[in-house]
Amino acid sequence: MNPIELVAWTHAEFVRIHPFIDGNGRTARMIMNDQLMKQGLLPVSIPTERRLAYFEVLERYAVRQELEPFANLIAELEEKRLDEYLGIRG
């Protein structure tokens, strides 16, 4: 797995097993950003306008074990953050 796929898999699996009564999504996103930073990447957040897509790709993983759509979403968010960091777009 490449780093983005590993981050996506860890996040999706954590949300799928739902270990806590509350806070699973927040905890999964904190773990995701920790993993991204350990790989030398920037932390990402899920913008409000992408929240529905975020839930849809997580559901797709939970039901059909399709990781690629979620990994692609994380990769898009990471690319946007890197572009912002480098001043390419704001």
CATH topology name, in short, is Fic-like fold
Described by strand count, sense and barrel closure, the largest sheet is:
none
CATH class type: Mainly Alpha
Distance between the ends: 30 Å
| DSSP strand count | 0
Coarse morphology: globular
Listing every helix as H and every strand as E from the N terminus to the C terminus, the arrangement reads HHHH
Sheet/helix structural class: mainly alpha
The CATH architecture category equals Orthogonal Bundle
Bin the helical content: over 70%
Q: Kindly state the mean pLDDT as a whole number? A: 95
- How many H/I helical runs? 4
| Share of residues in strands | under 5%
Which parts are unreliable, with pLDDT below 50 for 5 consecutive residues or more? Answer: none
Question: What does this molecule look like?
Answer:
The protein has 90 residues and is an all-alpha fold. It has one domain: Fido-like domain (Fic-like fold, Orthogonal Bundle), CATH 1.10.3290. Helices cover 70% and strands 0% of the residues. It has four helices and no strands. The protein is globular and about 40 Å long.
Which helices and strands, and how do they pair?
Layout: H1 3-17, H2 24-38, H3 51-64, H4 68-86
Helix pairs in contact: 1-2, 1-4
